[in-house]
Amino acid sequence: MHHRWLDRRDPQVIEVDGDMVGVLDHTWSGDRLEIDRIAVWPRCQRRGLGTTVLTDLLTEADRRRVDASLEVFDINPARSLYERLGFVEVGRDGHKVLMRRPPQASSSARASDPCLPT
Predict the structure, then answer these.
(1) In sequence order, what DSSP letters do the residues of 9-44 get, joined into one string?
(2) Any idea what the Cα angle at residue 47 is, between residues 77 and 14, rounded to 5°?
(3) d(C-alpha 20, C-alpha 46), whole Å
(4) Helices (H), ranges, the chain
(5) Which of 17, 84, 95, 98 could in theory staple to 91 by disulfide, Cβ–Cβ 3.0 to 4.6 A?
(6) 37-42 long-range contacts, Cβ below 8 Å, gap at least 24?
(7) Regions in the chain scoring below 50 on pLDDT
(8) Using the 8-state DSSP alphabet, how is residue 44 labeled?
(9) What local confidence, expressed as pLDDT, does residue 3 receive?
(10) Predicted TM-score of the model (pTM)
(11) Dihedral Cα 84, 89, 95, 96, nearest 10 deg
(12) How far apart, in whole angstroms, are the C-alpha atoms of residue 23 and residue 109?
């Protein structure tokens, strides 16, 4: 399944020590980061890879001050990761859950940007 998807899209490959362990597909569209797909191969899950990749991407969204959005099936265990990272449910389409995360202002960003509220 992943190989068919890779042939159709232009995702970023997630690698560990030179081995492909997952893929990430996202787009920056004006005022939003759309995470179209993140997949970490099952043998590499539960090691913090998805968290690290998403945290880096969300840090850039915060820097740009844009919302991040994604869809996830309601039974997907990754949903709890998205909630821990600040995503909230904003809609549903059958079993798909639309989630959004507003930009977060970090304490370091507040300290270095006089235009951000303290």
Answers:
(1) S-PEEEEETTEEEEEEEEEEETTEEEEEEEEE-GGG
(2) 90
(3) 16
(4) 2-8, 49-64, 78-84, 107-112
(5) 98
(6) 37/5, 37/9, 37/11, 38/70, 38/78, 39/2, 40/14, 41/2
(7) 1, 107-111, 114-118
(8) G
(9) 56
(10) 0.76
(11) -90
(12) 29
Q: Distance between CA atoms of 81 and 50, rounded to whole angstroms?
A: 9
Domain boundaries, the chain: 2-111
Give the integer Cα–Cα distance in Å for 79 and 3.
24
Length of the chain: 118
- Token readout for 45 is 């899950």
> The domain 2-111 is classified under which CATH number: 3.30.200.20, 3.40.190.10, 3.40.630.30, 3.40.50.150?
3.40.630.30
Query: Which residues partner with 13 through β-bridges?
Result: 23
In angstroms, the CA 50 to CA 112 distance is 29
Of 75, 101, 103, whose CA–CA distance to 88 is shortest? 101
**Three-state secondary structure call for residue 43:** helix
